UniProtKB/TrEMBL annotation:
Enzyme class, spelled out: transferase
Name of encoding gene: lysC
Coiled-coil ranges from the UniProt annotation: none
InterPro entries named among the record's database cross-references: AceGlu_kinase-like_sf (IPR036393), ACT-like_dom_sf (IPR045865), ACT_Aspartokinase (IPR054352), ACT_dom (IPR002912), AKii-LysC-BS (IPR041740), Asp/Glu/Uridylate_kinase (IPR001048), Asp_kin_monofn (IPR005260), Asp_kinase (IPR001341)
Binding site for ATP: K7, F8, G9, G10, T173, D174, Y179, R184, K209, V210
One annotated Gene Ontology cellular component of this protein: cytosol
Residues reported to bind substrate: T47, E74
Domain of life from the UniProt record: Bacteria
Protein name: Aspartokinase
Reactions it catalyzes: L-aspartate + ATP = 4-phospho-L-aspartate + ADP
């Protein structure tokens, strides 16, 4: 008998009918003899609705209170699913994060799970109950409700699977697996049978929202067998695996990720002397703003230009800080651009193949897409381009790296 953690995302529990369907599915698994812990998200749109409510009170809602509120979305779905199971004769019980005691740190709105008390869940499973746990939420050591960041129910699922040493963590969603790129943008995208943790981690951190990045980190760290599947269609889904060997025969590039959430800032004409990068980025990090890509140009006339990207939500704050730095350093000007996008190609195959980046640049050149910034690591190449070319770029790269599904080719 196996112990399975199943997580159902927002669209999969988006209506009462869907919750009933999920209950049917869980019931079937249960009849197969497995122990089941189910993690659910809020009904789709609910978390956004709650955040909008808070924003009607304040543009910057108090993080603690925001967590008290947004955590209610999941509290509704756990109760509805438990009711739907009980109605079908399946013994079930629901718990909030606090009730389980999913202990987190105190960083409201982006808390990290520290520890999970598995006692209650184990007792319920022994007694034959399906345990339904609220995703996305926990409690800190002072008893404050916390949430884990958008998409955080994935992380609840994986963390529970790790704590319970489950045989598998199944992430049920509205696509039948992890694709070569977002199938909503590229209809020719193909489902991957397998992807390594390392690649999935890059894909998630570079913008593929099919799994929250922390859930992949957790799964890698605790070696949790993780699978992404469609909630209501049969199929093998995608296995996230440690095993790199088996993916060696796959193409050089496993996937293409993209992200419209960044903005670019440039400070021009700063003195080219030691310590300048620190003088520019020190105050940015002191303002709690995370920097992603950084480029410093070659100096001429003893001055240089320095460009970096931040999350779009942090753009205005970063601009204010940079203006201040610019006047202190006697820089020429600060310019910025919010209409950018980052496109990345990801694949462990890059380690053993040369010329991957130039192939990427060639494909973009053919579409006359200008590259504004470039950054590389062992298994990825990212470029920043003008946002309006994002979809064109992703499609061109998908074709250039031969990722298009055969039956779609030539369309
Ligand atoms: P859930 O509500 O179930 O958590 P999400 O909306 O968070 O679902 O994630 C699923 C969505 O992720 C898909 O509908 C798809 O548009 C998007 N997505 C982005 N990149 C990928 C990818 N590489 N493979 C599959 N889906 C992707
Ligand atoms: N309901 C939360 C969100 O919308 C968590 C999740 O769905 O994973 O971000
Ligand atoms: Mg999600």
């Amino acid at each position: 008998m196996a112990l399975i953690v199943q997580k159902f995302g927002g669209t999969s529990v988006g209506t009462v009918e869907r919750i009933e369907q999920v209950a049917e599915k869980v019931k079937k698994f249960r009849e197969g003899g497995d122990d089941i812990v189910v993690v659910v998200s809020a009904m789709s749109g609910e978390t956004n609705r709650l955040i909008d409510l808070a924003k009607q009170i304040s543009d910057t809602p108090v993080p603690r209170e925001l967590d008290v509120m947004v955590s209610t979305g999941e509290q509704v779905t756990i109760a509805l699913l438990a009711m739907a199971l009980i109605k079908r004769g399946v013994p079930a019980v629901s718990y909030t994060g606090n009730q389980v005691r999913i202990l987190t740190d105190s960083s409201h709105n982006k808390a990290r799970i520290l520890q999970i008390d598995d006692q209650k869940i184990r007792t319920d499973l022994k007694a034959g109950r399906v345990v339904v746990v609220a995703g996305f939420q926990g409690v800190d050591e002072h008893g404050n409700i916390t949430t884990l960041g958008r998409g955080g129910s994935d992380t609840t699922g994986v963390a529970l699977a790790a704590a319970l040493k489950a045989d598998e963590c199944q992430i049920y969603t509205d696509v039948d697996g992890v694709y070569t790129t977002d199938p909503r943008v590229v209809p020719q995208a193909q489902r991957l049978d397998k992807i390594t943790f390392e690649e999935m981690l890059e894909m998630a951190s570079l913008g593929s929202k099919v799994l929250q990045i922390r859930s992949v980190e957790f799964a890698g760290k605790y070696n949790v067998p993780l699978r992404v599947l469609h909630s209501f269609q049969e199929g093998p889904g995608t296995l996230i695996t440690l095993d790199e060997e088996e993916s060696m025969e796959q193409p050089i590039i496993s996937g293409i990720a993209f992200n419209r959430d960044e903005a670019k800032l440039t400070i021009r004409g700063v003195p080219d002397i030691p310590g300048v990068a620190f003088k520019i980025l020190g105050p940015i990090s002191a303002a709690n703003i995370e920097v992603d890509m950084i480029v410093q140009n070659v100096a001429h006339d003893n001055t240089t230009d320095f460009t970096f990207t931040v999350h779009r939500n942090d753009y205005q704050a970063a601009q204010r800080v940079l203006e201040q730095t610019a006047s202190e350093l006697g820089a020429r000007e600060v310019i910025g651009d919010t209409k950018i996008a980052k496109v990345s190609i990801v694949g462990v195959g890059m380690r053993s193949h040369a010329g991957v980046a130039s192939r990427m640049f060639e494909a973009l050149a053919k579409e006359t897409i200008n590259i504004q910034m470039i950054s590389t690591s062992e298994i990825k190449v990212s470029v920043v381009i003008e946002e309006k070319y994002l979809e064109l770029a992703v499609r061109a790269l998908h074709t250039a790296f031969e990722l298009d599904a055969p039956n779609h080719q030539g369309e």
